[in-house]
Amino acid sequence: MSNASDTLSDRIGGAESVAELVQQVYVRVLAGLRLCPFFENTSLEKLVRMQPEFFAAALDGPMGTGDPDLAKIHYGMGIGRKRVTLFVNHLILC
């Protein structure tokens, strides 16, 4: 049972559930033709290893030691509102 002080991350099951969510999102993202090209030259192993920290932070959960500047990392990739919306739609379906 959750209480009012639980984070959203806690309420959905903590680190294990966040890791499963990441796996599900990337299965969906990589199966679609509109977003998979963005990941052609990306180490998916590294991405799946790093993403749980990002998702946990977004869900008000614990953050690890990494604090990347996401805007800097994604600069020049042509990722605009439309593509972010596509990605979030995959997340919502999980």
Biggest sheet: strands, sense, closure? Answer: none
Structural class call reads: mainly alpha
Taken as a percent bin, the fraction of beta residues is under 5%
Distance between the termini: 22 Å
Which regions have little confidence, pLDDT < 50, spanning 5+ residues?
none
Description of the structure:
This protein is an all-alpha fold. The protein has one domain: Globins (Globin-like, Orthogonal Bundle), CATH 1.10.490.10. The chain is built from five helices and no strands. Helix 2 (14-31) crosses helix 3 (44-58) and helix 2 (14-31) crosses helix 5 (81-93).
Provide a brief overview of the structure:
This protein is an all-alpha fold and about 90 residues long. The protein contains 5 helices and no strands.
Please specify the SSE layout and strand pairing.
Elements: H1 8-11, H2 14-31, H3 44-58, H4 70-74, H5 81-93
Helix pairs in contact: 2-3, 2-5
Features:
mainly alpha; 94 residues; 5 helices; Globin-like
